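Limitations

Structures in this collection are predictions, not experimental determinations, and the ligand pose is part of the prediction. Treat each record accordingly. The example that follows, with iron/sulfur cluster as the small molecule, is included so readers can see exactly what is and is not provided: the inputs are given verbatim, and the output is the predicted complex.
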Amino acid sequence: MRIGVFVCHCGNNIKATVDVALLAERVREGFLWGASSVSPSVSPSVSPSASPSVTSVVFSADYMYLCAEGGQKMITDAITEHGLEGVVVCACSPRMHEATFRKAAQRAGLNPYKLEIANIREQCSWVHADKKAATDKALSLAKAAIAKVKLAKPLFPGENTVEKRALVIGGGIAGIQAALDIAEAGFAVDLVEKTPSIGGKMAQLDKTFPTLDCSACILTPKMVEAASHENITLHTYSEVEKVEGFVGSFTAVIRKKARGVNIKKCTGCGDCLAACPMKKIPNEFESGMANRTAIYIPFAQAVPNVPVIDRNHCAYFKNGKCKRCEGACQPKAIDFSQEDELIAERYGVIVAATGYEPIALDAFGEYGYHDNKDVITSLEFERLTNASGPTGGKLLRPSDGRVPKRVTFIQCVGSRDATARGKPYCSKVCCMYTAKHAILIKEKHPETDVEVFYIDVRTPGKSFEEFYRRAVEAYGVRYIKGQVGKVIGENGSLRIQAMDMLENGRYDSVTDLVVLAAAVEPSADTKKIARMLAAPADVNGFLSEAHPKLRPVESATAGVFLCGMANGPKDIPETVAQASAAACKAIGILMKDKLVTNPCTAKADEDLCNGCGLCVGVCPYGAISSEGGAFPRVVCVNSALCQGCGGCAAACPSGAMDLQGFSHRQITAEVDALCL
Amino acid sequence: MPVNIVAFCCNWCSYAGADLAGTSRLAYPSQVKIIRVPCSCRVDEAFVLRAFIRGADGVIVCGCHLGDCHYMTGNHHTKQRMEALFGLLEFMGMERERLRLEWISASEGAKFADTMAGFTAQVEKLGKNERYAGKCFEAADAETTNTEATDTETADVEAMDVEATDAETADTETTNTKAAEDI
Ligand SMILES: Cc1cc2nc3c(=O)[nH]c(=O)nc-3n(C[C@H](O)[C@H](O)[C@H](O)COP(=O)(O)OP(=O)(O)OC[C@H]3O[C@@H](n4cnc5c(N)ncnc54)[C@H](O)[C@@H]3O)c2cc1C
Ligand code: SF4
Ligand code: SF4
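Predicted complex:
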């Protein structure tokens, strides 16, 4: 077998620590396959033609950038000129460019699976400083790749059809935008939202930085558009319970929770709300600063504008008596007998947009959030200044309804906090929304003194710095660099004890209202959703992108896309941009009729299989069965279902099951090469 | 002689974690050499044993954290298999510390580098793997030749492997004689 080895310099990235010319030369030294005529160090170098029955490296060369056009051409030319039957590329991680090089091989008529990568950048030159050691290791890795490729069989991908329907999980601005873009491209979309209305956190916000346009005014038209779009089906008050399958053909089971109200009959008049006797339930949308009834519409502009009966608080569901709402409802929409409905649907792609929550403040006792009514979170503040909020937009203290004379903002509550109670990351939006809150107060009450405690003020973003400066210069907001140690309730006021780091002294004063910029974290269900989708999440629980720079809206799981806060802290403009990008990637798949499948699937040898069935139990996808095989009990693998984990191959006691592309013999050969 | 370490890393988490260690330039000992497998559950006990008899001084198997497996349940099988393998190593009289199982996610570049440095140090403390290295070549080769017997597609590969087998057998004999002399 005639093998060619190509060594990349990657500019200086590899060349600085690995002697690339020496490597290109030494891969030609025979190890397992004898023949060791080393030609002088000219690259590229071609060895005297080897006898056809012996595997040998007949061509090797090093090159500045193999992934560039010239490098790829060098590979394709060598394949044709030297009749290469196997290629090893010593370069960056296969996660970067395996596909690039395999495509190049294919152009030259070589089966793409006859090309292997030796990762000598991420796993060698970048992590070892000693040139000799790194070169030795690179040689080992190259030899392992050669050993693997010499046993490679040509593989041919299959095809599977694409279900032309998208599932979007989460109906915040991210999910709404992604759904609209996919729907506009002509594909059916199911938008699943857990709560009774779409809108997410943005629906709770008052004005938005840095332009101070009203959040509801820009969001509600989009919510209505999503609800009325002919290609979008809304599933509100619903959750995804189960996801199976793979890109192009996922199957999801959606639980539509019983609303107790017939969506088709309800006119949204709200008569039932007035009739409900259970009036003292904390209103989630108002962050608990107002009450709601047991049958409720979460907020005035909710989409759909249809109430839900909260069964945990409803008198009928608790005690079997009441049904007043039913009496009040003229269109007879109330339906106490409604039950959860499970629907199963097939999808080609899935967009995860499950958003965020502010962290709970139980561990931050020093700020007295649970002890003082006048210590609130920033999200509560959004409701407090909102014209549709509990005070009609008047800035009034929750405790006594007075206008505060002084307001103190504390930033980074739990953000940039590496201790167990906090989050190591920056929540990104707090500096800007705090400046926004300060300006909003000053516009309504110029006489109110506003102070902000900060660690750093971070304003990267279009018009962000200007916005912050306006708060300081035009509105006279006082920014104090330092951390607050304690907030103590004192005769109806709040005493602040802090360190002023610029004055290098203690700060002790009295204020009327304290607003805490609590860190954000992924919404509670993110973990569950990540598992369901087999989509990796990072150490902080945010869904990970397939590549932090080059594939920012894709999950590592093919066909799953990410957007919004579910992927990491970001503001609305970034969320919308990411949602549109995710939609665009999703559309790219939906446009195709067929997708090629990964040919690295398992395959059972009928002659060796003893029918023990151990592999059947191991396969997470139910891909193995004894149906359709040549003999009873002898198994065969459904390659459309097999995802290629290889668990079955390791479980098989009779050596009948093997994984193509990562065969028993190939891995054994790699082990041998590395241990030489 | 420095110790030699074979690391099996699953494509989705640990291999990506190793790449991240690279992009973040977090150094670890160069004796650690990685074999990429789709899932840690692809790692057959035979691969680990093969590495030991070929002279590896330590083998580390890395997968996604339990519950985060790209193939849903793959790493649970890995865990079961490796736990059994620890027992087998002890039974064989080999230090179980030469084998390690770790869960390293794609975002844990630092954990990858630290783990590899820690494991290398641990294996260095044990020294070279002399008890089994090179001892069972005959058995292993017999096994390879068997599998090859069923393989008629690629004549060149076979021819080559026969050649290799011969060379290895010769190798084994010398090792065996040496071992005999030691006794
Ligand atoms: C106090 C505060 C002020 C802010 N002010 C501004 C501002 O002025 N300007 C700005 O640009 N940004 C601002 N932001 C940031 C802004 O809120 C976010 O960027 C934006 O809301 C992110 O949208 P999203 O759709 O990703 O997440 P979310 O708004 O959280 O939406 C996620 C949706 O998914 C749903 N969901 C969760 N789990 C599931 C599940 N399992 N199944 C189905 N659905 C689920 C949720 O119910 C929710 O509807 C502010 C943030 C805060 C905390
Ligand atoms: S039945 Fe339940 S929801 Fe309806 S009015 Fe009574 S308490 Fe309210
Ligand atoms: S490799 Fe085996 S266990 Fe894994 S998905 Fe395919 S058939 Fe199932």
